[in-house]
Automatic annotation (TrEMBL):
Gene Ontology annotations for the cellular component aspect, listed alphabetically: cytoplasm
Gene transcribed to yield this protein: MCA1_6
Residue span of region Disordered: 50-94
Classification lineage: Eukaryota, Sar, Alveolata, Perkinsozoa, Perkinsea
Protein name per the record: Ca(2+)-dependent cysteine protease
PANTHER family in the record: METACASPASE-1 (PTHR48104:SF30), METACASPASE-4 (PTHR48104)
Coiled-coil regions listed: none
């Protein structure tokens, strides 16, 4: 048997095929993508001495030499479709070669490549696309009220303030009015959002719903946990990790493409695995194991990785605290600078006595005294793309001895939704008994009643509180 890696023509994910070994004879193969269920057909050339890579509908080609610079975007990687090596103990040196990176368990698409910097700012192409995902989880124990209003609020901002064409804005909601936000649909539409991206294109992504954490199998996250978002069919299909979001949305973008994202959910601080985070009074802070890319990508997140994000019940219409503050700040001051926008978001949380602190992360460093908009494009400033490995981290397991909480944990590291099992959170049984419990990972004591009560603030969180 031989192994071939092929790329789904719909969602751009990598599919690993086991093929019969038939030297000198080309093969035509069909494969259903495990992510979006798209049926692909591939022309696999005759077996040669080097490995090959194929895209759906095309022939496989030999990859370039690993020591040669590559201008092509890295191929998407998903833990569900590509096996990874076991991570050895120890701390590898900074600036690993590709061979060393492979030794330390990095998938090929995370490994470093050299790339061009300082290319001219492109002219805008007129391509503007947005994907807005809002999930209220109707009928579940973790039902929310503000997520679908959030995406309609964001759509109005794009249309009324930035004059986007409504036909270029796609909504996924679980109220039956739009395509359902299942795992497959979210992944497929993430691929749609950035498909055929070219310099001068403008993209926007917004997610409002539950967020989570689960153990990072590569041990590259500083807390040992990947951040995730929770599709409406999470019980059957599972979560979507920040690694997957990066590989689908960020990695394929060439230099000269702008992607702005807003994620209003718990544990969303590094929800796209961008390498730079703005820290008040300190400036830009680079991740220990930064994952660099070519595109100009910015993420406004509702809180940092350790925090929960709340629904705001103020006023006649519910909405996420972060989304509401973001839209209101821009409507009030369309030319607001980045630094003033971040300050306003945090001040709004303080005014409402919320502990969450919105933050900004980016694919590259830029001055925050410039006005915020969706169309200023910063060409690639990263001399290399891929993941720089400096240190490995162990996951922080739940050491809580409380039997009641311990029995809530999902097997396999699936995590918690506000202290409740995902399975329990998505069934139709009554709401659970409210308890006050110590946190599972650090931080102050959390009143689950305050988070999940019907009045006041409703936690939009899933994850290890």
């Amino acid at each position: 048997m031989r192994t071939e890696e092929v790329q789904c023509g719909m969602c751009q994910q990598i599919i690993t095929l086991q093929m019969p070994t038939m030297r000198g004879e080309p093969l035509r193969a069909r494969a259903t993508c495990p992510h979006c269920q798209h049926l692909n057909e591939f022309d696999i050339p005759a077996l040669q001495s080097t490995s090959s890579f194929s895209t759906a509908g095309g022939s496989a080609q030999s990859p370039p030499a690993t020591n040669a610079p590559s201008a092509a975007p890295p191929m998407p990687y998903s833990p569900q479709s590509q096996a990874t090596a076991q991570v050895p103990a120890g701390v590898p040196p900074q600036g690993l070669t590709m061979a060393s990176q492979a030794q330390y368990g990095l998938p090929a698409t995370m490994q470093m490549q050299q790339t061009a910097v300082g290319v001219p700012v492109p002219e805008l192409t007129g391509v503007q696309r947005a994907l807005l995902v809002g999930i209220n989880y109707y009928g579940s124990k973790c039902e929310l009220s503000g997520c679908i209003p959030d995406v309609h609020n964001m759509k109005r901002l794009l249309v009324e303030t930035y004059h986007w064409n409504p036909n270029d804005i796609k909504l996924l909601t679980d109220d039956g009015q739009n395509e359902a936000p299942t795992r497959a649909n979210i992944i497929r539409n993430l691929g749609w959002l950035v498909r055929d991206a070219k310099p001068g294109d403008i993209f926007f992504f917004h997610y409002s719903g539950h967020g989570a954490q689960q153990e990072d199998p590569l041990h590259l996250e500083e807390d040992g946990m990947n951040e995730t978002i929770i599709p409406v069919d999470v019980k059957e299909a599972g979560q979507i990790t920040d690694d997957e979001i990066f590989q689908i949305l960020v990695a394929p973008l060439p230099s000269g493409v702008r992607l702005t994202s807003v994620m209003d959910c718990c544990h969303s601080g590094t929800g796209m695995d961008l390498p730079w985070t703005w820290v008040e009074h300190r400036g830009w802070n680079e991740d220990v194991n930064p994952w660099h890319s070519r595109g100009d990508v910015q993420l406004f997140s509702g809180c940092d990785d350790s925090q929960t994000s709340a629904d705001s019940s103020a006023g006649p219409i519910s909405g996420g605290a972060m989304t509401t503050a973001f839209c209101n700040a821009i409507r009030a001051r369309p030319g607001v600078t980045y630094v003033d926008l971040i300050d306003e978001l945090n001040n709004e949380m303080r005014r409402k006595h919320m502990s969450q602190r919105p933050q900004l992360s980016s694919s590259q460093v830029f001055p925050l005294d410039r006005p915020f908009n969706l169309t200023d494009i910063l060409p690639n400033q990263n001399k290399s793309i891929g993941r720089t490995v400096r240190q490995k981290f162990k996951a922080r397991p739940n050491e809580n001895k409380n039997k009641f909480l311990r029995n809530m944990l999902l097997a396999g590291g699936a995590g918690l939704v506000g202290g409740m099992l995902l399975g329990e959170a998505t069934d139709d049984s009554p709401r659970p008994v409210v308890i006050t419990a110590p946190p599972l990972i650090g931080g102050p004591r959390i009143d689950l009643g305050g988070l999940f009560g019907r009045g006041g603030l409703l936690a939009k969180g899933k994850g290890l509180l």
